């Protein structure tokens, strides 16, 4: 008779539909069982396979590394050459030999190996231990975060004066940390490790998520206490150990991009010395700030730093948000179109960065003349993502929103989502149906259909 734990394992993980164990014909050897599998129908009973299973079911040593790699789940089948080592693995329950038969119940159709109960239990214990280690790591981060929020940082610094202009960003930073601390507490209560997926716009492995959480604490510590700091100081001050300055180097670009997206401000606004990169924002039309003024006539460029330091507005009525720089330059080339329609044109250049977000929000907040926003992107997966991101930015403001399609205009996000499905398989770049001033004016003035 098969032990109950082996029987449960076979029934839950190895048997196919309509298969069952022929308990009457099980052959017990000194160190193994030969277990026949049968398949029944209303009229027939046929032997379909034999499983050879070792009697041992508990791991008493580390699992062979080769087996851990080759058998990630019970459903995986592998061919192994017969050897003393393979037989030892089978005897110890690490693997199970499965022989499948032709309809004559004798001729071998296939022979392979599956994960045994010993290996399954070993893998489950490893997963459980790893999960517990993740929970402990999150718990340690939560303690550090709560200490920082309570001004009891475990790594205190002598406070230095920071610019008054930084205070709003620091306030948002503290709100972010509080949000993450709350999400972390909730996750720990549920014994889950997913914190960033529900709180931040990233989809990273756990180790990278955890590193980013520590990065946020490290940057926040310096932003609140130092007028300026450079990249290497972030890890060095936070970890206070040899090699600490390099802790975040492997994810530098991703971490900075995520930080700026969350705060909707460049990292320089926190005091981080310029990394030598400036993100341009291309546009055409009437726009003014406290230190700069732009008029109709050509393609202009500002930067994410300028947008952070200034507040922009426009007297335009129509705001075009386009994905492609080629579309931007083509529309700007028609030098009578923008002033004639009182339009402002902004190119997001294939990715909505923090500078674009901040500029668009400034214009929508400080420009009472704006009546509608026209969103024009490619009709592939990336274009769909950009269109949705822009819509979420615009949605809270009292303006009409339109999405440009090749031969139509959508006035509702749901309608745009449905319409875009017909273009996804084909793809569709803006340039393919660019048109000219006549078509652009039609899109501006096309009324919303009656509902």
How would you describe what is shown here?
With about 450 residues, the chain is an alpha+beta fold. It folds into 3 domains: about 5-115, no CATH class; about 130-270, no CATH class; about 280-445, Rossmann fold, CATH 3.40.50. About 45% of the residues lie in helices and about 15% in strands. It contains 16 helices and 15 strands. The chain has helices at about 5-15, 65-70, 85-90, 115-150, 165-190, 195-200, 205-225, 230-240, 250-265, 305-310, 325-335, 335-340, 355-365, 380-395, 415-425, 435-445, and strands spanning about 20, 25-30, 30-40, 45-55, 95-100, 110-115, 280-285, 285-290, 295, 300-305, 320, 345, 370-375, 400-405, 410. Strands 10-7-12-11-13-14-15 form a 7-stranded mixed sheet, with helices on both faces. Strand 14 and strand 15 form a beta hairpin. Helix 4 (about 115-150) runs antiparallel to helix 5 (about 165-190), helix 4 runs parallel beside helix 7 (about 205-225) and helix 14 (about 380-395) runs antiparallel to helix 15. The protein starts with a helix and ends in a 6-residue tail after the last helix. The model is unreliable at about 150-160 (pLDDT under 50).
Provide the descriptors you would attach to this structure in a database record.
451 residues; 3 domains; TOPRIM_DnaG/twinkle; DUF2399 domain-containing protein; single chain; alpha+beta
Describe the secondary structure blueprint for this structure.
Elements: H1 4-14, E1 19-21, E2 27-28, E3 32-40, E4 45-54, H2 65-70, H3 84-91, E5 95-101, E6 108-115, H4 117-149, H5 167-189, H6 196-199, H7 206-223, H8 231-239, H9 252-263, E7 280-284, E8 287-288, E9 293-294, E10 300-303, H10 304-309, E11 318-322, H11 325-333, H12 337-341, E12 343-347, H13 354-366, E13 372-376, H14 381-394, E14 400-405, E15 408-410, H15 413-424, H16 437-445
Parallel strand pairs: 11-12, 11-13, 13-14
Antiparallel strand pairs: 1-3, 2-3, 3-4, 4-5, 5-6, 7-10, 7-12, 8-9, 14-15
Helix pairs in contact: 4-5, 4-7, 5-7, 7-8, 14-15
């Amino acid at each position: 008779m098969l032990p109950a734990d082996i029987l449960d394992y076979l029934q839950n993980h190895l048997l196919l539909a309509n298969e069952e164990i022929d308990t009457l014909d099980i052959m017990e050897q000194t160190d193994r069982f030969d277990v026949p599998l049968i398949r029944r129908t209303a009229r027939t009973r046929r032997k379909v396979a034999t499983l050879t299973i070792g009697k041992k079911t508990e791991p008493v040593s580390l699992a062979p590394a080769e087996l851990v790699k080759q058998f990630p789940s019970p459903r995986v089948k592998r061919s192994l050459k017969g050897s003393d080592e393979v037989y030892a693995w089978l005897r110890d329950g690490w693997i199970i030999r499965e022989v499948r038969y032709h309809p004559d119940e004798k001729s071998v159709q296939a022979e392979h190996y599956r994960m045994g109960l010993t290996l399954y239990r070993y893998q489950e214990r490893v997963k459980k231990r790893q999960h517990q280690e993740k929970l402990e790591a999150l718990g340690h981060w939560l303690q550090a975060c709560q200490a920082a929020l309570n001004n009891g940082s475990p790594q205190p610094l002598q406070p230095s004066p920071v610019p008054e202009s930084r205070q709003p960003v620091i306030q948002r930073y503290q709100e972010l940390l509080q949000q993450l601390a709350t999400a972390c507490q909730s996750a720990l209560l549920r014994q889950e490790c997913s914190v960033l997926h529900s709180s931040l716009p990233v989809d990273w492995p756990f180790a990278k998520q955890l590193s980013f959480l520590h990065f946020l604490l490290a940057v926040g510590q310096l932003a609140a206490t130092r007028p300026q700091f450079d990249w290497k100081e972030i890890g060095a001050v936070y970890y206070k150990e040899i090699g600490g300055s390099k802790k975040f180097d492997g994810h530098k670009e991703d971490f900075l991009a995520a930080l700026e997206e969350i705060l909707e401000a460049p990292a320089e606004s926190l005091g981080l010395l310029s990394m030598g990169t400036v993100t341009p924002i291309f546009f055409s039309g009437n726009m003014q700030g406290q230190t700069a003024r732009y008029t109709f006539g050509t393609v202009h460029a500002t930067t994410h730093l300028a947008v952070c330091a200034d507040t922009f507005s426009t007297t335009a009525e129509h705001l075009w948000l386009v994905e492609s720089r080629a579309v931007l330059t083509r529309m700007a080339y028609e030098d009578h179109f923008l002033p004639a329609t009182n339009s402002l044109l902004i190119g997001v250049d294939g990715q909505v960065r923090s500078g674009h977000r901040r500029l668009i929000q400034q214009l929508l907040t400080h420009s009472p003349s704006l009546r509608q926003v026209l969103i024009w992107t490619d009709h592939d997966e990336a274009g769909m993502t950009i269109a949705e991101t822009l819509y979420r930015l615009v949605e809270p403001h009292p303006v009409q929103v339109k999405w440009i399609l090749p031969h139509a205009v959508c006035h509702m996000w749901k309608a745009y989502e449905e319409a875009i499905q017909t273009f996804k398989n084909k793809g569709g770049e803006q340039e393919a149906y660019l048109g000219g001033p006549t078509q652009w004016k039609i899109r501006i003035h096309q009324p919303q259909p009656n509902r």
